[in-house]
Amino acid sequence: MKFIPYALCVGALLIASKHSSAQNASETANHSHNQATSAAVSDAPKTDPLRDAGVVQTERVAALTAIAKSASISIAAATLSEIEACDACLARNDLATILAAQPAADLKALAPTLVRKANESTKDSTKDSTKDSTKDSTKDSTKDAANTSASRFVKAACVRAIFALPENERPTEAAAWKPVTLKTTTVPGKMSWDPKEFIVSPNSIVAIEMSNPDSMQHNMLVCSPGSLSEIGVAADKLGEGAIGKQRQYVPDSPKVLEIMGLTAPNTTGVLWFIAPAKTGTYPLVCTYPGHWRMMNGKLKVQ
């Protein structure tokens, strides 16, 4: 009988020891999880609502509203200014969408500036091509190409804003602009577009409307000729980390010429741009991870 209390004590000590070890292990695991969570939060990419992709439009509008209020100008004027500053940034199409959605009264007030900037962009492209013929093309071609592309982004945004006005309220200069509207639809469950091939003229004003009745998000990029595989593989690699999601799976490459961001199911994405001056076949591709091999098309400039 003397051994029974001793055995009970030993058993109790063992149970207490096991409970303590389990508690310590749990606390260690929780501490590690909290550290990992904190690290993930601190490593998450920070976004600029007026420059980056992956930002909801309400945040962009809030930032533009603050700028407009501070400068005592309309949101339309603030947006145009940010489009020029954005240039080739990932937010350019979203900013153009916001500009086109502004009240007609504000766009009409801004119309002279929109027309002037659109026409200046065309003149800039001419000047750059002249410079190429008189200077070392190896030295200046990259710089001039960037300048031409930048002017095209601004021009497309300005033209889009003008055409957001009722036809009878547009400036007379708009009559000379002949936008070409291309419409396509995602095929549910097929990772494809219908239609997926288009023909446009060099330097034409193009508006692509992509209806997405699919259950998945899709984007659409216009890329340099022959770059489909390169851009697709780069997009797949982007999808492996937080940066990819933040960039909406758009690779950081000069071969990405135009960007329609991720379009949610049962919505329509819109992209206005100036068609390339050089004839050729330009790939259209959805760069959502894993989509590009099937979801691609062609923009033929001829």
Strand order of the largest sheet: 3-9-8-5-6
The helix/strand class is alpha+beta
Low-confidence stretches: 6-16, 25-42, 122-150
**Rg from Cα:** 27 Å
Apparent shape:
globular
User: In CATH's first tier, which class of the largest domain applies?
Assistant: Mainly Beta
Q: Main beta sheet, described?
A: 5 strands, mixed
Q: What percentage of residues falls in helices of 4 or more residues?
A: 40-55%
E-strand count: 9
Strand content: 15-25%
Write down the oligomeric state: single chain
State mean pLDDT (0 to 100 scale). 82
Could you write a compact summary of the structure shown?
With 302 residues, the chain is of the alpha+beta class. It has helices at 3-43, 57-71, 75-86, 92-100, 104-134, 137-163, 228-238, 242-246; strands at residues 180-186, 193-194, 197-200, 205-212, 218-223, 256-263, 267-274, 280-285, 296-301.
